[in-house]
Write a structure and sequence with these properties.
2 copies of one chain form a homodimer.
Chain A: H1 2-14, H2 17-32, H3 40-62, H4 70-98, H5 106-140, H6 149-179
Helix pairs in contact in A: 3-4, 3-6, 4-5, 5-6
């Protein structure tokens, strides 16, 4: 009987579920967001990132004179880094999907966020530098006849699209890191 | 007696308070972070952003031939946008500090995050493009004798430092938006 009386005293502890009920749908909603590590959407994002990084790399290296411009070399380096990072995380996503493991523990999320932030910044920076030089060559100096303007433009565009695909990964990882 | 038996079934519902207790100090900790809107640290960040955007603008416009290069024009445009945005939010921070109002409601945070994201991206993009062209002129083509290499480099560096000052604002806003 004493234990029954003591139950109301436990009530303050039981009260939180109300706040928790308001919080739970958010938690559930966040868990379902496609694009996070370990979801099919996240895997698709990684594959898109990898595809466009490889495309930028291929188009840029197909031109013979890219090593003469530092920015184009940096685009090649950033595209290599981006493709390696994206394909590694794609394999990790495939593994997580196959064994149904949740990749969203705090430490993993932290590493994913840092890696995404670095690769996104590098890809964007090199894409901007390449685009700036391409615009300089084509619009400001009108030297397209003696340069591979189309290839340079295509490579920069591919790198930009790759960056567009990395940004959601980065923002979602940061968001779910903050949500914990 | 039946109720005692049924209690373990209720346990999963009672478990959350533990997670909630672990979450509460995080909420308290986030409120104190300097650099968020309405804190002295946030105001300082805004003033640093404004100062470096104005410095980049001043150094770039002090050269006579910047309009001939699209990337340098974009740097000027981005620096103007950045300085206007930063000084507006600096005034808002001063107001919030004077009347001791918390600026961290959801809608305001959302606008601050979007604005910071856009200005940070534009500043970074134009700084990268300018840096790419400056490196092209000075290292790849060795044309520094007939160009204002030092000014271009200084302006790009100022824009980069401005971007470094915007990033924490953006990340903190996004973080506290996700924390709510």
């Amino acid at each position: 009987m004493e234990m029954f009386v003591s139950r109301p005293a436990v009530h303050p502890v039981e009260a939180p579920p109300l706040a928790d009920a308001a919080e739970n749908p958010l938690g559930v909603r966040m868990k379902d967001v496609q694009g996070m590590p370990g979801t099919p959407g996240g895997l698709a994002l990684r594959l898109v990132q990898f595809a466009f990084a490889v495309a930028a790399l291929g188009v840029m290296t197909s031109t013979s004179d890219f090593p003469s411009v530092t920015a184009f070399c940096s685009l090649v380096a950033a595209a290599i880094l981006q493709s390696l990072w994206s394909i590694s995380l794609a394999f990790l996503d495939v593994y997580a999907l196959l064994v149904r493991r949740c990749l969203r523990n705090r430490r993993a999320l932290c590493w994913f966020t840092i890696g995404d932030g670095i690769t996104a910044t590098l890809t964007f920076a090199s894409a901007c530098a390449s685009a700036g030089i391409t615009v300089l060559i084509s619009n400001d100096l009108n030297l397209c006849s003696e340069n591979h303007c189309t290839s340079f433009e295509t490579a920069a565009a591919m790198a930009f699209i790759g960056w567009f695909a990395v940004s959601p990964s980065f923002l979602l990882n940061l968001w779910s890191l903050a949500c914990r």
